[in-house]
Amino acid sequence: MVILTRLSVALPAMFAVFFVLGASPATADDAADCAQVQDMDRAIRACTQRIQALKSLQSGVITGLIAGGVFGNEAIARAYNNRGNAYSRKNNYRAALSDYNQAISLSMHEALYYFNRGTAYGNLSDFVRAQSDFDQALTIRPQFPEALSSRALALINTGNPHRALQDAELALRIAPPSALSLYVRGRALGAIGRVEEAVVDLRKSLALDPTLSDSSEALRRLGFTP
Known about the structure:
By secondary structure, the protein is mainly α. The protein folds into two domains: 18-126, Alpha Horseshoe (Serine Threonine Protein Phosphatase 5, Tetratricopeptide repeat); 142-226, Serine Threonine Protein Phosphatase 5, Tetratricopeptide repeat (Alpha Horseshoe), CATH 1.25.40.
């Protein structure tokens, strides 16, 4: 099953994780380890250390840098977001939600944090909350194709395939087709009975990524071989 990045049906794990972490001079090693995606346990430890270090620096020792945001809430929010991503990659979505909540509380105007929290809700099959977070992400950043595709999957799972198709088609207009965006449109087309078009999209999805098992499964559910 694909993850709403991480999308899913259950949402399929297709929500790509996008995060940016600016390393600060005082904790550069932790910043790099917190952002890396190879060793999730190491990332969780590094992010935890970075959060603690940044909070300590907020005591006012370096007031100029804190005021400028180098050691301020934005940096702490990024660390929480990255730790949430690491928990998501370990399928620990409850822990991820807690960190995304913290990131949002510190930086309420960052679309990425709502997107990542929505993917965690999606992977917990809480599609209503997932859709709400994707709505918020798109309010902040309307040209956000991954959020559109992710919201489309949430809408399919809440019985709104026509709205899902609108989102899926918009995502494909504002970004190059990917295996996942074609999969999402194929799912929406299949859900409203446009089976032949759905099969075309799902097969194109597999041509781009033969390992995307959700596309194969969707084809089988429509009565076609991958």
